[in-house]
Amino acid sequence: MIAPMSKIKLFVLKEDLSRTIGILHDLGILHIEQIPLTKIMEQRGISRLPLSPQQDREKASSEVLIKEIDGIIQTVGHLCISCIQGLGGEGEDLQTKSLEELTEIVNRRLKPQLNSITREITVLQDELGILPQYKEILESFALSKRELKIHEDLTCLALIFDSRYEKDMQIFKRHLEDKTKSQLEVYITSFNPKKIVALLFYPPAVCRQIDEEIFKKGTIKIELPAKFLSKPLNETIQSIEVRLKEIPKQLESLKKALSDFAKENISLICAIKTIALNRLDRILVVNNLLESKYTAVITGWLPTKDLNRLNVNLENSLSRNFAIYDRTSFVKHPQDIPVLLDNPKLTRPYELLLGLLPPPKYGTRDATGLVSLFFPIFFGLIVGDIGYGLIFLTISFFLKKSAKFFIHSLGSI
C-alpha cells in the first residue's frame, strides 16, 4: 500500500544546522525539497544558505574520491557477486576518518595494487595479440632464407603493403635513406601472394622522421621489438611459440590475483564509497535550505507514522531549540506528493515486477497485493511440471543468497 505522507517545515538555529542534517541523514525518513526563494522573502532578510569554504573543499574532495572509487569498481565490480551498499564493522571504523584519510587509503593501498595487476594484464594481452603477427612476418623471412643480423638497440618496424606497389616501395626506401642520411636498414620479402612486408631498422634518433613519412603514405605498420631479431630467425620463431604458450598461464594467474583482490577489498571499497556519498549528500542538501539571521529552515516529506519519531530524536539532540510545522493541509496538488510503498515483508518482493511500470500516484491504490496473489497462480498454471518446479526452486535458492535487492527479490518471487 501507499504510505500516508506529511509535509513539514523544520526551523532550527543555524549553529545546530550541521547536527540537524546529520540526524535527518541517519534517520533517512525525510525527503528534503528545495524551498523556492521569493522577492518578499529576500526583502525580509531571508536568503539561500550558501556553502562555506570548508564545505566547498569537502564537496570537491568527496567528488574526486567517488570518481576514484567508481574507477576501481568498474575494473573489479564484475568479479564480485554483489557490492554490499552498507556499513559493516569495517565501515563503522571508517566513519571516523576524514576524506583525506579515506583518499589516502584509496591512493596508497588500493590503487597501486590494482594498477600493478591491471598493467601486467594489459601488457600480456597486447603481447598475445601482436606475437602471432610477429611470428607470421618472421616466418616469411625464414622461408626466403634471409639473414637478419640487427643490433637490439635499433628500432624495428614492419610495413605491409600490396605486392603491386613493390617498385614504389623501392622508391620509398631510397627516399627514407635520403631523409635519414643512410641510417636505415631495409629488408623486403613476400608476406603472402598479395602482400609484401618490409622490415625497417633505424636508430631511435630518426624515429620521428620515419613516422612522419610513413604517416604520409598511409601504410599499415607493425612495431617489432628488435630483441626478437638479434638471434637466428628459427630460434626467434621458436622462442615466440614458447612465449605464446606461456602467456595464457600468466594471464590466468593475474586474473586470479585480480579476483582475489576484488573479494578481499570489495567491502572496503563499497564502504568508502557509501561514506563519501553520504558526506556529499549532507553538503549538497544545504543548497536546498533558506536562512535568516539566526535560523535555518528545512522543508520536506516523511511518512506520517515517523513524524513522532523525528520529533523525539530532535528533542533528544537539540532540546527544544527547534520548531516543526505540519504543512500537509496546504498542499494543492496531491500528484506532487512523493510516493512511498509500505507493503508487508511477504508481498514486498513483488514491487520489483511493478517497478517496470510508472509508480502509482499518491491517493490511488497500490497493486502489489493483487500481483502477489495472482502472479503465483498464473505462473503455476503455465509451469505445471514438477521437474521445472524443482529447477526454479533451486535457482531461487541461490538468488536469495544475494545481497542485492533486485536479485534477492527475484529469488523470493
> How far is the N terminus from the C terminus?
18 Å
Question: In sequence order, what are the helices and strands, one letter per element?
Answer: EHEHEHHHEHEEHEHEEHEHHHH
Unreliable stretches (pLDDT < 50, length at least 5) are 81-89
Main β sheet profile: 6 strands, antiparallel
What is the overall silhouette? Answer: elongated
Quaternary structure annotation? single chain
Into which percentage range does the β-strand content fall? 5-15%
Tell me the helix content. Answer: 40-55%
Structural class: alpha+beta
Give me the count of strands.
10
Number of helices: 13
Radius of gyration: 34 Å
Question: Which descriptors would you attach to this protein?
Answer:
six-stranded antiparallel β-sheet; 54% helix; four-stranded antiparallel β-sheet; 413 residues; 10 strands; 13 helices; alpha+beta
Structural notes for this entry:
By secondary structure, the protein is α+β, with helices and mostly antiparallel strands. It is 54% helix and 14% strand. It is built from 13 helices and ten strands. The strands form two sheets. Strands 1, 2, 3, 8, 9 and 10 form a six-stranded antiparallel sheet that branches. The protein has a four-stranded antiparallel sheet with strand order 5-6-4-7, sandwiched between helices. Helix 5 (99-143) packs antiparallel against helix 8 and helix 12 packs antiparallel against helix 13. The protein is elongated, with a radius of gyration of 34 Å. Residues 81-89 have low confidence and may be disordered.
Q: What's this, in brief?
A:
By secondary structure, this protein is an alpha+beta fold. The chain is built from 13 helices and ten strands.
